[in-house]
Amino acid sequence: MDYWGILRPFVVNHRATHRSPFSAKMSILGLKKKQPKTFKVKVITMDAEMEFSCEVKWKGKDLFDLVCRTIGLRETWFFGLRYTVKDTYAWLKTEKRVLDQEVPKDSPITFHFLAKFFPEKVEEELVQEITQHLFFLQVKKQILDEEIFCSPEASVLLASYAVQAKYGDYDPNFHKPGFLAQDELLPKRVLMQYQMTADMWEEKITAWYAEHRGIARDEAEMDYLKIAQDLEMYGVSYFSITQNKRDTELLLGVDAQGLHIYNPNSKLNPNKSFPWSGIRNISYSEKEFTIKPLDKKKDVFKFYSSQLRVNKLILQLCIGNHDLFMRRRKVDSIEVQQMKAQAKEEKARKKVERQILAREKQMREEAERAKEEMERRLFQLQDEARLANEALLRSEETADLLAEKAQIAEEEAKLLAHKAAEAEQERQRLEVTALKTKEEKRLMEQKMREAEQLAVKLVEQSERRSKEADHLKQDLSEAKDAERRAKQKLLEITKTTYPLIAAYSSPPPPPDGGDLSLESASVRMDFKDTDMKRLSMEIERERLEYMEKSKHLQDQLKELKSEIESLKLEEQQAGMFAHRGEARSYPDPPYVPHSNRNSAYMAQMAYFEEV
């Protein structure tokens, strides 16, 4: 390439022309120490992890070829082994030993097997199915991680192709609502942009997914990549640069088309672009990069990078993308032609197999539908036969039932004639009963009138007994007053009689004095005993009179209770007769208040309670 010149910094290593005895001794000791012959490496692809034991002398190409052979990859020029170093990343160089590069010192050393360069047209350049699958997984992850900007509409469409590649054709009987709940299909920015639930997003994705029926997995992944390659940030590696020493911050983008200059806040639309076909030379000196256009009339573009490691990475990507750019515009090599032919044959074979499978599937579905139709028809005929048998049985049962009904009708006719005769007899009996009922009604009215008269008499009797009770109460109070007066009179007699007897009837004292006092005492005691006996007799007589009156009142009270109970019983019987009678109108008896009937009884009860 005449127009493509690369200037690399030249580093001179100064070596000593002689060694000291001490250094020679140390080298001898170092040779005695046993060095490990192998080291462990862990390689992480987009869908697997692998571990290898590598020899110390291996170069980057040896490890890279081992990984490609393990996964069956032949389109190796798109991929590389990436590792992390400090705050950035780097790609493993194939021409240098692995341990001589700035790889991590961990054990095992971790590398990521990723696409380093991207094709311009995925459908033409990606031949192998494994290559398409690895690109599909990487681009899908970049879209979900928002490293590649994607609109919500395109995100939903891409998600439907990803679902088709994972689950195959849509089957509503198998793919129930919620089957995408565990899958990450949309960027978080898209999910937060709209106020929609997960079920609503799944419904939108499923609507597109149902239209992809018949697309195989590799075709769905290729359709995914065809849409993704039209996105602005697809396949672009961004680096922070400054245009001059005054630190005007910019972004440098390197992709399969060329170099692009962006504002830091906009990665979609570049301010300036340099296609590979229009670049004559790229060079860098420490932190300064120079882009010389092929047209000498155009100005040379210079920019600055902050780190030497980043400058080397930019230059490495520029060289690789430019080589692929030139390679695409040449005739394919024999290896690529063989790969494309094999891939074409493989696709044709798979297409035939899919057609055969689709035809067999269609025939199977038609056979299943015919089987289902025959089973349905069989079930229908069985149902019709069952219904016919049931109808025949029902007709036979109906004939028997009609015969039984005819016989029952004859018996019912006889029974009705018998019942008509009985009804006539019952009518005559009811007429006689009606006559008896009239007589009973008359007797009942007479009894009601007698009961009314008896109730009036009882009321009068209760009032009379109430008055007698008042008189008895008055007599009792008078007896108590007489008793109290008698007691008072007795006390007065006792007080007045004793001193008079002592004054007028005391004889002259005898000579000896003892007999006189005895006689006077006996006289006083005799008088006192006589008065007490008389008073006791009067009290006893009054008590007996009181007891007789009380007994007489109790007898009257019992008699009154029995009369009231009999009156209540007659009233209840009269009510029962009234309910048992036919529904005819009778004159209401005069109402006697209950309070008047029981007032005398209540008064006497209160009196006896007080006594």
In short:
The chain has 611 residues and is of the alpha+beta class.
Describe the structure.
This protein has about 600 residues and is α+β, with helices and mostly antiparallel strands. About 60% of the residues lie in helices and about 10% in strands. The chain contains twelve helices and 13 strands.
The strand line-up of the biggest sheet is 3-2-6-4-5
Succession of helices and strands: EHEEHEEEHHHHHHEEEEEEEHHHH
Q: Would you tell me the structural class of the helices and strands?
A: alpha+beta
Percent helix:
55-70%
Number of strands: 13
Number of helices: 12
Distance between the termini: 148 Å
- What's the overall average pLDDT, rounded? 79
Radius of gyration: 66 Å
**Coarse shape:** elongated
Q: Beta-sheet strand percentage?
A: 5-15%
Quaternary: single chain
Biggest sheet details: 5 strands, mixed
Uncertain parts: 1-32, 504-528, 578-598
Membrane topology: Peripheral membrane protein
Subcellular location: Cell membrane; Cell projection; Cytoplasm; Nucleus
Main location: membrane
GO cellular component, one term: cytoplasm
List keywords for this structure.
elongated; phosphoprotein; disordered N terminus; 611 residues; FERM_2; 12 helices; Merlin; alpha+beta; actin binding; four-stranded mixed β-sheet; single chain; 13 strands
